[in-house]
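Sat 14:20. Reprocessing the chain from the morning session after the first attempt stalled halfway. Input below, unchanged.
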Amino acid sequence: MGAGGGAVRRAGGRLRRLARSRTASRDPGEQPNILLVMTDQQRWDALGCVSDWVRTPHMDRIAAEGVLFRQAYTNSPLCIPARVSLSLGRYPHNHGVWGNRRYTLPASAPTWMRAVQEAGYATSVFGKTHLHPHKGDLRDREPLMHAYGLEHVDEIAGPRASVRCRSNLTDLWEQAGLYDVYRRDIKGRLRDVPWVARPSPLPLDLYPDVYVGRQAATHLRTYSGDRPWFCWVSFSGPHEPWDVPEPYASRYDPGAMPAPLRVEDPGPRSRPRGSLDDRLADPVPFREGEVGRLRANYAGNLELIDDQVGGLLEVVAERGELDRTVIALVSDHGEMNGDFGLLYKQNFLDPAVRVPFAVRLPDSHPDRTPGLVSDALVELMDLGATLGELAGAQPADRSYARSVVPVLTGRAVAHRSHVVSELKGEVMVSTDEWKCVLNASGEIYLLVDRSADPQETRNIAGSPDAADAENTMRRTALQALLSSMQ
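Finished this time. Tokens:
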């Protein structure tokens, strides 16, 4: 790890000693356990309780027994900046991570995970975090993860990065004689048609999402400490490639998948341009039936993950702890899946920027409001502030995240007047009525009337009829940025 490795190890050791010392003076019965289920690249509508094209009964259960937020937005529609924002409660313009560059979250960073640990929790993480570069051997950076506040660590890289990045999981692949097979499969997809949908060469029990779910379940099943536990289960799916194994690969009919959204041509109009214009001008050259096939594979991956979530809920129930466990569900960003001729993320349209967000309070919580579907505007980073408050942790330093506990307990209906998301110098601001995107020059190049056009098929930026709304959103965006410039 170089010269900084010793400092990271010392920081991690200090934090673990601090957590143990605080535990001795607290009654763990006063604090709920916390199970955080996080997916990678799950669209906001990719839940059975929201749409009819996917089955996710266990994720639906979390929403039904808690509060489902229908207007939750990532702070960046890209992995690393989104996850850094979640960890710190800060926007890309604060932490400076605007894209997927090689970035390491500093060991001294004031994460909410460390605040939860300092509040007396036994903390663990399974799966993908992407808070440091996916290269080399992830296990070499466990001291860094400890410094973030995560004691028990079993980390994996994303699907593509696993070709070059070692972990406990890749060791299992190698022992089974499958690592080279996996590498060839991934490299072949990238060389030929990256969006092809075909099953992984890995058997089901060695598929990354199954591994993550089972490792977390085993950890929870065997945990016998006297501290309340926080377990972050971070699946690497349904992130592309579309490679869910059988039997899930055949669970959905490609022909039954929803048709992709299309942009309506507004006709000639003068307006600023931005990165989305470049992408829309160069759509993915899908062949006949490809969008349906990749969507069916994506749905299969979600059902696979949902089955793993079901296993986790079963373990919590076996422990007799549902009455004192907070359960949260979230994703880092969405996936276009062929909408508007696009794939992946890296834009501010809803399929990429809106995410699932649900929180279930323990059965014993006196102000629990199960079954509530909230239209409050929420940002991804708000989850950290929420879990921190429920754990009795100190708020993270210089955080702009806001806890949604008032909504969870029925004390509030509204949460934010607007939400902000950022990527590569561009800024999205959305209210209940409007969404706008400013390009790197600060000009509004995308404006959507969210009430009249919920599917965002019409960009009315530059339209004379939308001048007042454009001016209002420009002021809202300026105020949002100025209020978060510390």
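The longest strand covers residues 229-238.
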